[in-house]
């Protein structure tokens, strides 16, 4: 909360030193740059989200492959024990 108050105070103190004409030029001026900037920002944000999702999925796949490997080892051990027991009872 305190940081927001400081940031707001900085913004308002800087704005008071600017001529009114400069303050209004951004409001009533050309908005094409803002639109292009927003579009590229959205694309960048989407790309970062996609990268994060891909990394999260890769981590899940890695964990599942490790679990599968351990399960295969356990299954093989049980199979060998079963074969040994079966041979003793033949």
Q: Determine the number of helices (DSSP H or I, runs of at least 4 residues).
A: 3
Number of strands: 0
Query: How would you sum up the major sheet?
Result: none
Tell me roughly what share of residues is in helical segments: over 70%
Strand content: under 5%
- Low-confidence segments, given as residue ranges, are 22-26
Question: What shape does the CA trace take?
Answer: rod-shaped
Q: Any idea what the radius of gyration is?
A: 32 Å
Order of helix and strand elements from N to C terminus: HHH
How would you classify the helix and strand content by structural class? mainly alpha
**Overall mean pLDDT score?**
77
Distance between the termini: 78 Å
Quaternary state, please? single chain
Describe this entry's structure for a reader.
The protein has 90 residues and is an all-alpha fold. The protein has helices spanning 2-16, 20-28, 32-88. The longest helix has 57 residues, at 32-88. Mean pLDDT is 77; it is low at 22-26. Its main location: mitochondrion. This is ATPase inhibitor, mitochondrial.
Please give a quick description of this structure.
It contains 3 helices and no strands. With 90 residues, it is mainly alpha-helical.
Task: Describe the structure using short key phrases.
90 residues; mainly alpha; 3 helices; rod-shaped
